[in-house]
Amino acid sequence: MRTITYAILTFTFVFAFAANSYSQCKTFTKSKCNPKLSPYIYNGQLNSAVLNEGDVAELMLTFYSDHDYRIVVCAAGEVEPVTFSLKDNAGNVIFSNEDHNLVDTWDFHTNSTQQLRVEVGVPEDDNPKKQKSGCVSILVGFLDSGE
Question: What are the Cα distances from residue 122, in Å, to 18, 74, 126, 138, 144?
Answer without folding.
Answer: 19, 11, 13, 13, 32
